[in-house]
Design brief:
heterodimer, A: alpha/beta, D-Amino Acid Oxidase, Chain A, domain 2, 28% helix, globular, B: 94 residues, Folate-binding fold, binds flavin-adenine dinucleotide, binds zinc ion
C-alpha cells in the first residue's frame, strides 16, 4: 500500500502520479468474522481500527449500506470540542482530544485537525456567569478554558464588531483554546485506510436488513450481499439505530432528527476559530478552502428524510445575520441535512447488549463528530472485553431506567430539546 | 416543505406549527410499574414510515391537531383532531 510521506509524493510526481494505489481494498464479504461493525461512518470505522490495532482482533468487517463517509461523518460542521460539565462526559471527550492531536501521525493520514479555538459568545451578564461556571467545571476536569472580556472577544474575532449592536451586544465569551475543526472526510478515509491495512474488510453497498439468531444469541446479520456471521456484532449506525434495533424487538431511548448545515462560496479569512452565537442557536467557522460553514438548531420533528425544511433554514440564516451582518453579501453554495440519533438525555450509549452477541453505539445527537476517535476507542474496548472502559461506563443503555441520565442541558426526556 | 391542512384554517405553512410528539404514546396509569413508566418516558418507536403525531397550530387557531406524516418523505396523508383516528391503511388519500 505504501505510506504517505514526502518521499512517496515526490516519487509519484516524477512518475506522473500513475502509481497511486487505492486507499483501501474492495473485498467480497466472507461468511464469518470475529467481529462485525455495522455502519461505515466515523464511529464504525474508528471502532474497527482500534479493534485491530489495540485488541488484536483483525478478522473484522465494517458493513456499510452506501459508501463510507456518506452519512453524518461527511455531513457535519466538524466542530471538535470537549467543553462539557458533567463527570460522565468530560473525561470521555477529553480523551478524544488526545486522540485528535495524534490522529494524523497515528493513521498516516492528514485529518487536518486544527485547534483554532471554540468561542461561545455571552450577550448578558447572567449568560457570562453561566459560562464562567462551565469554564470552571472544565478546569476542574483538567480541560483548558478561558473566560474572555468583550474586548478580548473582539480582538480575536474583529468581524464580530459590526454585530456588537444594541440588540445583541457582546458581553464576553468562553474560549476552549484547544478545540477546533478537523477535515470530516479525511477522518473517515483515514480510519478506513488504516483499518484496511490491519486486515479489516470494509464492505460498501452492503445493507444489514435483519439478524441471524441462535437461541437467545445474535450470531450474524442478513445483508443485501448475503448472510454474514460473527462472534460479536456492533451497531454504529447513528440515525438508523432504532430501525435496526426494531428488527431485534428493541425500543431505544433515541429519536431520529434532521440537522441542516450550510456552506458559502469561498471567501478571504474572516473568522479565525469557531464562534457560537449566544442569543440564538448559530455556530460558524471557516473552512481551509474559505467557505463559511455554519448551522443551528435541528428541525424539531422526528424524521429519516435526509433533508430539512425552510423554517429552520430561515432561523439559522437570521441568527447568522444577527451576529455577522456581512454574511448577507455572500452566496450560499450548498445546504444539506443529516439524520441524527437524538437520545433522551443528550448523551450517548456505548454498551454491551442488550442481547448476547450484540453491542450498541448510538445516541450521539449533533455532537458525535468530535467523539469519533474516543467513541471508536471505547466501543472497541467494550466489544473486545465484553465490558465498558472506565471512560464509557456511564454511557449505559439502562441508565434511563435506573435514573442515572447524563443531561448536560437539563432539558429532560425531550430529544428535540438537547 | 411541510404544509398542514388545518381543519379550521385550511392549508398553512410549516412555520405556523409547532411539533408536539408521537400521538401513539399513552400516559400509563398512575400506579403502573416502573418498567411501564420507563418505556413511556424514555423509549420511542421512532418509526420509519407512516407516523401519527401531534402538531400545535401555534400561529393560527391554536388547536392541537393529529397528523399522519411519512417520516421518510415529509408527506402528510391525513390531518384530524386529537380524538380522531385516521382511516385504515390504504383508505388514506395522499
Ligand atoms: C448537519 C450536521 C452537523 C453536525 N455538526 C457536528 C459538529 O459540528 N460537531 C460534532 O461533533 N458533531 C456534529 N454532527 C454530528 C455528527 O456528525 C454525528 O454525531 C456522527 O457523525 C455520527 O456518527 P457516525 O460518523 O458513525 O455516523 P454516520 O456517518 O451517519 O455513520 C452511520 C453509517 O451507518 C450506515 N447504515 C445505516 N443503516 C445501515 C444498515 N442497515 N446497514 C449498513 N449500514 C447502515 C449509514 O449509511 C452511515 O454511513 C453533525 C451532524 C449533522 C447532520
Ligand atoms: Zn388552525
Amino acid at each position: 500500500m505504501g505510506n504517505y510521506n514526502a518521499l512517496n509524493i515526490a516519487w509519484q510526481a516524477l512518475t506522473g502520479n500513475k502509481n497511486w494505489q487505492r486507499a483501501w481494498r474492495d473485498p467480497e464479504p466472507k461468511s464469518h468474522y470475529e467481529a462485525i461493525v455495522v455502519g461505515g461512518g466515523g464511529h464504525g470505522l474508528a471502532t474497527a481500527y482500534y479493534l485491530a490495532k489495540i485488541h488484536g482482533i483483525t478478522k473484522v468487517a465494517v458493513l456499510e449500506k452506501g459508501w463510507i463517509g456518506g452519512g453524518n461523518v461527511g455531513r457535519n460542521t466538524t466542530i471538535v470540542r470537549s467543553n462539557y460539565m458533567l463527570d460522565g462526559n468530560a473525561p470521555f471527550y477529553e480523551h478524544g482530544m488526545d486522540l485528535w492531536r495524534d490522529m494524523a501521525l497515528d493513521l498516516n493520514y492528514n485529518a487536518m485537525f486544527s485547534p483554532r479555538g471554540v468561542l461561545n459568545l455571552a450577550h448578558t451578564k447572567s449568560q457570562y456567569d453561566v459560562f464562567a461556571r462551565r469554564g470552571n467545571s472544565m478546569r476542574l476536569n483538567g480541560i483548558k478554558a478561558e473566560i474572555l472580556s468583550r474586548d478580548e472577544v473582539l480582538q480575536r474575532e474583529p468581524t464580530l464588531a459590526a454585530a456588537n449592536s444594541e440588540r445583541f451586544p457582546i458581553f464576553g465569551g468562553l474560549l476552549q483554546p484547544d478545540a477546533g475543526n478537523a477535515r470530516h472526510d479525511a477522518v473517515a478515509w483515514g480510519y478506513a485506510r488504516a483499518a484496511d491495512q490491519l486486515g479489516v474488510d470494509i464492505i460498501q453497498n452492503c445493507e444489514v436488513v435483519d439478524f441471524i439468531h441462535q437461541g437467545e444469541k445474535v450470531v450474524g446479520v442478513k445483508t443485501s450481499r448475503g448472510d454474514i456471521r460473527a462472534d460479536k456484532i456492533g451497531l454504529a449506525v447513528a440515525g438508523n439505530s432504532s430501525r435496526l434495533a426494531s428488527k431485534l424487538g428493541i425500543r431505544l431511548p433515541v429519536e431520529s432528527h434532521v440537522l441542516q448545515a450550510f456552506v458559502t462560496e469561498p471567501y478571504k479569512p474572516v473568522i479565525n476559530g469557531v464562534v457560537t452565537f449566544g442569543a440564538g442557536h448559530f455556530y460558524i467557522s471557516q473552512s481551509d478552502k474559505g467557505g463559511l460553514v455554519f448551522g443551528g438548531d435541528i428541525d424539531g420533528y422526528n424524521t429519516y428524510a435526509q433533508r430539512g425544511n425552510l423554517p429552520v433554514f430561515e432561523d439559522v440564516i437570521s441568527g447568522g445575520l444577527s451576529i455577522m451582518p456581512s454574511l448577507s453579501r455572500l452566496k450560499l453554495l450548498r445546504n444539506w441535512g443529516g439524520i441524527m440519533d437524538m437520545s433522551m438525555d443528550g448523551s450517548p450509549i456505548i454498551d454491551v447488549g442488550p442481547i448476547d452477541g450484540l453491542y450498541l453505539n448510538t445516541g450521539w445527537c449533533y455532537g458525535g463528530f468530535k467523539a469519533t476517535p474516543a467513541s471508536g476507542w471505547c466501543f472497541a474496548h467494550t466489544m473486545a472485553n465484553d465490558k465498558a472502559h472506565a471512560l464509557n461506563e456511564a454511557y449505559t443503555l439502562d441508565r434511563f431506567a435506573k435514573g442515572y441520565t447524563i443531561d448536560e442541558k437539563g432539558a429532560g426526556p425531550y430529544p428535540k430539546a438537547h | 416543505m411541510i404544509r398542514i391542512n388545518c381543519p379550521h384554517c385550511g392549508e398553512r405553512e410549516h412555520a405556523e406549527f409547532t411539533y408536539g410528539e408521537d400521538a401513539s404514546r399513552l400516559l400509563p396509569a398512575n400506579d403502573a410499574n416502573l418498567e411501564t413508566w420507563n418505556e413511556y418516558v424514555f423509549e420511542r418507536d421512532n418509526v420509519a414510515g407512516e407516523h401519527l403525531e401531534y402538531w400545535h397550530h401555534a400561529l393560527g387557531c391554536r388547536s392541537w391537531l393529529k397528523v399522519q406524516r411519512n417520516t421518510l418523505t415529509h408527506d402528510i396523508s391525513w390531518v384530524g383532531f386529537p380524538h380522531d383516528t385516521p382511516p385504515a391503511q390504504g383508505e388514506v388519500k395522499s
